[in-house]
Amino acid sequence: MKSDYQADIDAIGKIDAVPTILDVVCRTTGMGFAAVARVTEDRWIACSVLDHIAFGLQPGGELKVATTICHEIRQSGDPVIINNVAEDPIYCGHPTPAMYGFQSYISMPIFRKDGSFFGTLCAIDPKPAKLKDPEIVGMFRLFAELIAAHLDSVDQIAVSEQLLARERAFGAMREKFIAVLGHDLRNPLASIVSGAKLLMRRHEAEPDSRQILLLMQGSVLRMRGLIDNVADFARSRLGSGLTLDLEADAHLLERTLDQVVDELRTAHPDRSIIAEVSVEHAVPVDNGRIAQLLSNLIGNALSYGDVDKPVRVSAKADKAGFELAVENSGTPIPAETLANLFEPFARGEGGRNVEGLGLGLFIASEIAKAHGGTLGVTSDASSTRFVLDIRASSPARKNSSHPEPND
């Protein structure tokens, strides 16, 4: 029959120091039996045992609690030390020594941090022993406190693990909600994008209407970027990561980069974006992801760069691989910020666009990693420069059979 106190037995069993403690107790005192016992009002259970005298108890074994001196220790809270039962004025006529056949006995209470009584660290032997010695008593007290401290630590770890499990479950639920929300927002946003483009064509000759539509288009582009970043963040946190639909098409890549630059020029007509794109060699990339990365980098440069200086974009693809750089002038990024710049929700100081979630650079970095490439940054008084570098031999996380939905 499994003990009702198996958790206590397991807890003591997980304390690596306990077998050593029992061995030191027996060697120091010369006694043949030592144990850590769980003692309650109605139970005495051996949790760990060292038995050189064939006393007959194993972990999980029990004694009738009323027949033990540990029962009295639980009630008084004081240790009991007997050098020689026959000569002890208090215990010479006590029934327990005769029942269990011992002459020497020592038992130290184990109290938890909250003051509750756990049990005892005890030892017995059929021969007398010199136990009423300050060093031996101090050793037993220290060992009892050490066992109690370990038990408290085990409980604290268990509580922490429970809290962590709850937090993870809540976090997973929250991230699933974010992912679903981002997915469901894409369809109405796509309708707004299409409507804005249609109205732009119809109102090209009306300056006032065109200006309003330009503002709408800029807002829609920023909303789309936010939704994509949030959805990708949730996807990466939920474990699926960013997968790629790779395509090696030099013309398509060049057109994709030009389109991103044109969109951001339209959304920010008061800013200068200078682009030099030269794609001479087909490099396998996910064009949609590269567009997202470039949009995030240019958006970051527009937010934090000097408004009177241009944002410069350069891209080249050759047999060695693909390199894409975005550079802006302005206040350099502090070293302490630079170290965590690609962490989620990290945001620089001094930017004008403070509505961002701080996910753009994190997602850009994840896109670079998914391509087997790197995204680096340098920043000094002259400029801040982000560089995506994808070598031709870089392994990418390809998912051509199950490309991500483009809603």
Layout of helices and strands, plus pairs?
Blueprint: H1 6-13, H2 17-29, E1 33-39, E2 44-51, E3 62-63, H3 69-76, E4 80-82, H4 95-100, E5 104-111, E6 117-125, H5 134-202, H6 207-237, H7 250-267, E7 273-279, H8 287-304, E8 311-318, E9 321-328, H9 335-338, H10 360-370, E10 374-379, E11 384-391
Parallel strand pairs: 7-8
Antiparallel strand pairs: 1-2, 1-6, 2-3, 4-5, 5-6, 8-9, 9-11, 10-11
Helix pairs in contact: 2-5, 5-6, 6-7, 7-8, 8-10
Kindly name the structural category: alpha+beta
Kindly provide the radius of gyration, computed on alpha-carbon positions and rounded to a whole number of angstroms. 36 Å
Give me the CATH superfamily of the domain at 242-391. Answer: Histidine kinase-like ATPase, C-terminal domain
State the order of secondary-structure elements, H for helix, E for strand.
HHEEEHEHEEHHHEHEEHHEE
Q: Approximately how much beta-strand content do the residues carry? A: 15-25%
Widest beta sheet: strand line-up: 3-2-1-6-5-4
Oligomer: single chain
What's the helix count?
10
Task: Kindly report how far apart the N and C termini lie.
Answer: 59 Å
Largest sheet: 6 strands, antiparallel
Helix content: 40-55%
List how many beta strands DSSP finds. 11
Overall outline: rod-shaped
Low-confidence stretches: 400-407
* Text of the CATH class of the domain at 242-391: Alpha Beta
Average pLDDT value? 84
CATH topology of the domain at 242-391: Heat Shock Protein 90
